[in-house]
Amino acid sequence: MDVSSSLVEMPVSFLCTIVEIDGVERLKCKDILTKKELKRFHPDLGAFLEQALGYMPSIQNNATINGNRTIKELKQQEDLSFKKSLENIYKHNEATQNIIDEANHIDYNLSGLLEKTRTLKKCNQIIDGLKHSLNQYQKEVLGLTHLVTIQKKN
Fold first, then answer.
1. Structure pTM?
2. Helix, strand or coil for residue 5?
3. Does residue 28 sit within a domain?
4. Whether the Cβ atoms of residue 28 and residue 19 lie closer than 8 Å to each other
5. Whether 117 and 93 share a structural domain
6. Which residues face 20 on adjacent strands?
7. 60 inside domain
8. Whole-angstrom Cα distance, residue 22 to residue 26?
9. Cβ neighbours of 147 (radius 10 Å)
10. pLDDT score recorded for residue 1
11. Which residues in the chain come in under a pLDDT of 50?
12. Helical segments of 54-109, H only
């Protein structure tokens, strides 16, 4: 007597098979499903369901999309992911500390700010004066250019 059952529990499904061999019920998965069959299981199931349903349901996850991986491989991937998360946390903490350090060096002294504002105002007045002088010089250059042009014609 062969008994098969399956349990679907999102996001994974389990397949259980009990086989009667020589009158004794035994569960020997490697005699039932070879490694080659296990590697083809998800792609074959996907193809069957796509043909039967008319669309491809999402049956593979990160652990099965590139073929089944061993527990060791999955743990290594999890360790790498954890290490990357820790690195990101350390980088974030370092960036946060740098911002805090920069904020601690800001001079919030109002008298210094007032003096800087006065200096900036004086600089802007000088710049405005230079712009006015530049405009005057440009007008004079145009006038002289006009005179030189007239004298060349004569």
1. 0.32
2. strand
3. yes
4. yes
5. no
6. 25
7. no
8. 10
9. 10
10. 46
11. 1
12. 71-104
DSSP category for residue 3: E
Strand order in the sheet with 12-21: 3-9, 12-21, 24-26
CB-CB contact of 65 with 39 (8 Å): no
Q: Say what the pLDDT of residue 77 is.
A: 79
Nearest-angstrom CA–CA distance, 12 and 60: 9
Give CA separation, 105 vs 1, 91, 97, 99, 138, in Å: 81, 21, 13, 10, 45
Span 63-78, pLDDT tens digits: 666 666 777 887 887 8
Residue 104's CB is within 10 A of a number of other CB atoms, namely 7
Check: CB of residue 20 under 8 Å from CB of residue 1.
yes
| Separation CA 141–CA 135 (nearest Å) | 10
Identify whether residues 7 and 49 lie together within a single domain.
yes
Q: How far apart are CA 147 and CA 9, in angstroms?
A: 95
